[in-house]
Recover the amino acids of this structure.
């Protein structure tokens, strides 16, 4: 099944477009989990990895009936070496076993022959002594487009082949994203290729690329499996990008801890109320730190309440 | 010690700027290694990882007296999951134990708080239950600059703190690199920031960023620990970039299998004969496929000869 159709169906079934970012930080894992695991494994990378997995399972169990998508960010896991990557893999598998769609947030990028390796790693099949084996088999992956189409194509081919999706960075949520992404580009090349304004921002150029790269991956929902990352912190740009990429699903970081509110994410949606998933990481998984009634051991219940709060917040803005 | 000084000293000691790309592919690992390991471990990801490590150790033993630098590309390892990442880590450690400088080629990128995670993972210290532990502790890391300075800053801070280096993608070796990197940018923002031409290419803008980001990391050699990736396949652009980034060390992929020759990489060097390291992956590690006298079991000797051939090739072009 086409990834976009699967994602849209999941959003409709759950009645909201929330993506929970599974970005664990060791210093914020509840002490009871840490004690139980370090008593057995010592203060090791293996113990850190097991703490992450146990913490994540608690979150997943609490939110899997409410939200359609989770997005583990692999940097947090890679810190703990191959043991951390093990926890990342197990987290993805556990989330999928609970019916959640998993977006691996790894922002991979390289030249074609190497991008093929990343694509096999996260989305496709890997060579296994003359046969094939599954890689991580996530549902989707984030991808950085600095190298142009031939660095993105291997991922798109695996989207087609295995029913997977990608989200290409277009306009990111961070403060200095404009240093490259907001530059005005000018000249023959752009106007010839797109036959429109001679003048556009880099993020608009990338939007045109994303829309054209994904044109063959549009499913029955009308959305493409080639989506875009568009930060909640730039609502005016999101409005432009929504028009430039009518068929792309937006993965929207920046809600909550990074400062984006429900009204800021609204321009990321189409008139059909679809077309975006909104991520919140710290604001959900570490909600126990702000919701005193729960305490550390109630972190999963606090996360569940934070999801319901977020759903309400989006609903009030007319999003779901 | 400043990374740039360490790298320049290693290049001078070995008398060449060759970087061996450790990008193993399971289907090209000699049958004798595969048999020995799969007999014990079966046709598993663990076996694939062990094949990679044993293969790499053979290459490293053969080339460590000749070349100054190796560059394992993590995509090839990530295909085999956490077991593959284990092989990547062990490869880096083994190469360092043989006196080689290790550039982890992972092209990481994200917003600041997540980039901190990647930087800790590859270059710095990680949180370990209230104390600190080393991450991978590579000597340097490749970084993709699509998110601007706040996504690169955490890496630069770890360069300063731990004597590490980064290589920022500027102009990549692949065919479609120009789709973004060659765009003409125009307007107030660029001219105000750099007080020069109103018109420049994206790769020129990135070069200005790299030179300014690395200004505080210049060592006694006159080179900065913030370097740039500049493909051997674009010699004319390399010439411009060499002028724009006099203090940056260039990491130059694209020699050999990708089509770049010694004359193509020459513009990447400064007049002092320094300022670049030239990578070759397939052309060295799988040299046994072209050098029939060696055969698969002589892969390490074939790699050694390929390094000596490359050194000769660079020497003839007046590079070393």
């Amino acid at each position: 099944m086409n990834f976009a159709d699967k994602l849209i169906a999941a959003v409709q079934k759950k009645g909201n477009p929330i993506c929970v970012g599974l970005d664990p930080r060791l210093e914020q894992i509840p002490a009871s989990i840490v004690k139980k695991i370090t008593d057995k494994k010592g203060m090791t990378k293996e113990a850190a990895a097991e703490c992450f997995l146990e913490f994540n399972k608690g979150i997943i169990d609490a939110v899997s009936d409410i939200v359609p998508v989770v997005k583990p960010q692999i940097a947090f896991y890679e810190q703990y070496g191959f043991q951390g990557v093990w926890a990342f893999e197990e987290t993805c598998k556990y989330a999928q076993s609970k019916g959640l769609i998993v977006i691996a947030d790894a922002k991979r990028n390289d030249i074609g022959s190497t991008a093929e390796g990343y694509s096999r790693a996260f989305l496709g099949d890997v060579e296994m002594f003359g046969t094939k084996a599954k890689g991580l088999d996530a549902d989707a992956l984030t991808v950085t487009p600095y190298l142009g189409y031939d660095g993105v194509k291997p991922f798109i081919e695996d989207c087609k082949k295995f029913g997977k999706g990608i989200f290409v960075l277009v306009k990111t949520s961070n403060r200095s994203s404009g240093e490259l992404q907001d530059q005005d580009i000018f000249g023959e090349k752009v106007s010839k290729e797109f036959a429109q304004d001679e003048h556009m921002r880099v993020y608009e150029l990338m939007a045109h690329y994303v829309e054209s790269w994904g044109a063959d991956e549009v499913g029955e929902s009308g959305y493409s499996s080639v989506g875009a990352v568009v930060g909640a912190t730039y609502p005016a740009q999101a409005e432009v990008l929504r028009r430039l990429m009518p068929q792309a699903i937006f993965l929207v970081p920046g809600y909550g801890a990074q400062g984006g509110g429900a009204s800021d994410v609204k321009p990321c949606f189409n008139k059909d109320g679809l077309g975006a998933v909104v991520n919140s990481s710290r604001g959900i998984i570490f909600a126990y730190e702000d919701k005193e009634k729960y305490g550390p051991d109630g972190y999963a219940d606090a996360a569940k309440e934070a999801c319901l709060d977020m759903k309400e917040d989006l609903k009030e803005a007319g999003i779901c």
Q: What stands out?
A: Residues 45-63 of chain B form the longest helix (19 residues). The two ends of chain B are 25 Å apart (CA to CA).
